[in-house]
Fold this protein.
Amino acid sequence: MSRAKLSNILNSSVAIKEKIRSFLIVLNKKKYLFYFVSLAVFFIIYSLAVNKIKSHAKLKENNFNSFLESNEFNNIKEYFFENLNSPYREYNYTVESNDTLDKILKKYNIESSEINKIAVEIRKKKLSNIYTGTEIKLITKKEKEANKIISLFYPIDAITSVEIKKNKDEYIVSKNVLKLNRKEIVLSNTIKNNLYSSAIQAGIEPNIIVEFANIFGFEVDFQRDIRTGDTFEVYYEQFVDDKNVVRSTGKIIYASMLVNNKELSLYNFEYDNKKGYYDVDGKSVIKTLMKTPINGARLSSSFGIRKHPILGYNKLHQGTDFAAPTGTPIMASGSGVILRAQKYKGYGNYVSIKHNTTYVTAYGHMSKFGRGIKKGVRINQGRIIGYVGSTGMSTGPHLHYEVLKNGKRINSQRLKLPSGKILNNEARNKFEVERIKIDVKIAKLRKYR
Ligand SMILES: [Zn+2]
């Protein structure tokens, strides 16, 4: 190689270096270099993180997604986007208690006039309710000192969300309702500790478990009757979105329990516009409570405001009094478990019975308790629980009878409970057809489980 050629090459490489240098100086002057390098560093970190995660064979895709959704990643992202000087910002805000949409938007320095425009629109459409813990997505654009809203998105319940978008100077508010599909499902499990935890373990939604316990409430005492190894099965409706995520649940179609080697299966059946649950013999699961749990008595004081015979002032009488001679037997007005059988406040000798998760009945002023009537004993409707007397705050022998619905005393004489009737004739025929259909469906659904 000649000297001239070599010096030419050297000269040109010096020239290239010089060109890059001057290019960098220009960049530096315009302060773009910082952003360029920042971005490059950012993407290097980003791809390193991606590669590290991908190479980790055991990590599932979900982990990567959760990294992308993580706060750290968001902080990095936010930092770099801020330095890019874009007027647009994206925010995810989790609603706190006492938040209103106005308050939240003020936090993001949105112009009051903009907030008012939106507030008017969403109030008109009754979409202003937001709930603690839900996530709001907000995109803003910085103009002069304040921010303007480009779009706003927030859910108002499990299936409804609101989207607000700017179109020129107007805001367009739209309500999106998820289309849900009805799905039927059969789930079962063996009870280990208690029904609730075993049902949760089987994937049953809490509201279905509560409903299940209510249906069996007249038959099974969930605190006392259940033993480890007992089983249950429930067939019910779910409503799922297009991603197959359960958004809400419907009715229980069939429910079964094997308690103490005794199986009890209940079928949902509607007849004469009355819904109920019936066993295989067409017998309703709900047993009426007696209006008068005593024979040959006279109703002497009904539920309502009255002048109290001992206290002398007007007071709400929260029960029904039946006058009867001392020693007249008092019956349990429904099947259940004895909650109390003892002297209790002004009631004197007192018995209370829990019938299911909803109803409790109570009996006061007894002269003595029935044989074997003790706290925790399970009894059938009609069992003699005690005898009329005048113990406690009482002016003469009578039974003071109370019905409590969800802990609140109600008028027993106006109580309308569906009777523990057995379906007959046409109703029974329809029930048998329905029952067979349900049995066939359960068998199919069990297979696909
Ligand atoms: Zn009374």
About this structure: The CA atoms of residues 84 and 174 lie 32 Å apart.
